[in-house]
Amino acid sequence: PKKQEKKKCTKAKSKLESENGTTFYLKVHVPWDVLATYTELLKIKMPFKENDITRKQEVRMNWLFKPFRLPDEVMNPEPDYFTASFQKDKFDFFHIENRDTFFHASTRNRIAYYILSRCLYGTEEGTKKIGIKRLLNNGSYIAAYPLHDCQYSKRSEEPGCDSDRYTLYCDWARFSCFYKEQPLNLIRRYYGEKTGIYFAWLGFYTEMLFFAAIVGVLCFLYGASTYNENLWSKEICNASIGGDIIMCPLCDKKCTYWKLITTCQSSKQSHLFDNFGTVFFAMFMGIWVTLFLEFWKRRQARLEYEWDLVDFEEEQDHDFRPEYEAKCTLRKLNPITQEDEPYMPLPSKMARFLLSGATVLFWIALIIASIIAVIVYRLAVNTAFSSIIKGNTVHDLKLVGSLITPQMATSLTASCLNFIAIMILNFFYERVAIWITDIEINKTHLEYENRLTTKMFLFQFVNCYSSCFYVAFFKGKFVGYPGKYMYMFGQWRNEECDPGGCLIELSTQLLIIMAGKQMWGNIQEALVPWLLNWWRSRKAHVNPKKLCSRWEQDFDLQCTQEFGLFYEYLEMVIQFGFITIFVASFPLAPLLALVNNILEVRVDAWKFTTQFRRPVAAKANNIGAWDEILNGVAILSVVTNAFIVAFTSDMIPRLVYYYSYHPGKEPTMEGFINNSLSIFDIRQFNERNKPDAKDIPSWFDSNTVTTCRYRDYRYPPGHEKEYSQTVQYWHIMAAKMAFIVIMEHVVFFVKFIIAWIIPDVPSDVKERIKRERYLTTEYLHNYELQKLRQQLEEQSNPALCLASKHNLSAFCLALTQASKPCVCKDSAP
């Protein structure tokens, strides 16, 4: 820390000297000796020699990418050095120009927090009181946080003081920089590796979304270009075909007969997403997600080397959580370290995990219950909307059908209701998941975060995706047929798909939930912290903010939560699930995600830089448990998209008809609509299903019209297999299963080949790691020899050297270069 800063801090000896006169600020500084000791303890790598490895010349189109690049002093704020684990007794081996600047601010605050979180400050009934967290919880301290280096809006005026916050604000946090690259090295130096790896992942994910968005838009444009060319929509919109087909009621009593022509617009809209481009896009996304994960591994490996995190995973194993050390009073010998360490007995651990598992199952059951409630709502209000949305003439039916149908109204309101339920339940999930994970008393920070991540994602997965799974794979699949419908709980008739198909409903559901979550998330992240900070500063300070000290200004900012990045990852991974698991139903989903993420990067940057206290720096060489979750979502997405194309889309029935059941010699889609509708004798309706006489439209003449049509493949009345599935139905089912098997095997095979071809670590990174380790060993060896020569030269009398036979060559080399005589004794011949 700067001497000027120390002088300022020593003045504030009482709370009366603070601006508001009520808060006492105690600033903790870590001396050089303590920093050096804990840097060695934590095995933090420090520079010892400037990197002399020649980088491979990259072929760049500088004139094309220059507008997107930042100045080199921003992208690379410090030279590239070889690094080695710091050793206090060899401090002159390392590249130390200035002791005050040798340790970065992120390293200093990490070490300070490491010490504070493990300090023993008392005992009570034989229980140790350890750590700043307990003092924060019991109110002894209000907050503990590292300081920002300056105001974000102007550069620091103190000589020699860093202004990284100002630089980050100007070149990263402003939305006008949305098209610029991110200064990851500066982010890492200021906030630490854990924050840096998050923004590196988010930026890489956004870059890869650009390619998925382009293909998705092309698929959508293909559907739009063939909007008026699909024959099945033309048949529905034809007055002599769709206008003469009378459909069976879609619900009991309140629903009446209707004409197929009323679904003209919805069938055309469905074609925007339900076309041959959808099949291609579903397969493309299965390959895209593999490329994304494989290229991210390579990017992560490069950052791991550049940020000195290659051996970091081993360091985490001994980093106990203070809560674990405080609550686990029993100790046992660790066979690896040969030290007594705290441990939890197996019965206690099993009891805690059983309680945790039971709580998780209870909350998942609660989520499923809420989804069932929404389904019941859909079934109940469908009848009500059907009684409201009616028409008495063909013209009226066309008008109503072109605007909104009962199924569409039900789907829209149910989607909005489900979105509200998701937001409400999310509020409770966060607290329940943290409470459950705290009960388990996990051993390390990494273990705690991974288990919290798994629980929260499991909750969010069921909560966010359940309604989409219902529309995609259950709605319209267990309906029955007229006269023998299937009912939920024996009361509500199971819901049929919208006349335009279930795919358009799935697209609507996905759009509302995905867009709603993104809009709400951005409002929460940007507007709420700004309003809270404004109100808190307004209440706390009478004088202008510029008169407040640095620590008081930071105290007015929002507190950085311990798992602040956890919620950022969770939001993006849930979005990742939307654009992969259900992407076959909505090719524009990657475009929506791309637009949101471009905004998300800058909102998060602005929030971290201007609205939140500086987080305690933490190391991380990967994105943790999210990596395994992303791999699981990628595998699931291939399966779900194959099933969506097969069972939710009408693509397979059309192909079966085109190649096997067309009426002419040449394959054609003419007559597909009539072929896909079965016939029912309206005289066989039972009283429960029969529409009310007062609701029957005027154009329906019961004397001349004796049948109605419904979506299915069943034999007509009077056939020996009346209302049982036709041979075509089983052909279509076989084609659907064959498509699922073929698509899954093709995509998984391509995924396997891509994963095998693309190495996880780039070859040049492997070479640099090996080169650095070799040079580190060589330089340390030469350093030891130099120290030995200095010791020998300083001796006035002959030295007696006892050397082992393994190190004899090193000592002999030292002796030949020494100016003083030396007697060597060794057991070797």
Folded structure, characterized:
Residues 18-184 form the Anoctamin dimerisation domain. This protein has 829 residues and is mainly alpha-helical. Among the domains are: 190-313 and 341-654 and 737-761, no CATH class; 773-825, no CATH class. The chain has 29 helices and 16 strands. The strands form 8 sheets. It has a two-stranded antiparallel ribbon with strand order 1-2. A two-stranded antiparallel sheet has the order 3-4. Strands 5-6 form a two-stranded antiparallel sheet. A hairpin with a 2-residue loop joins strand 3 (120-124) and strand 4. Helix 13 (276-306) packs antiparallel against helix 24 (626-648) and helix 19 runs parallel beside helix 24 (626-648).
List its traits.
829 residues, mainly alpha, two-stranded antiparallel ribbon, two-stranded antiparallel sheet, 29 helices, 16 strands, transmembrane helix
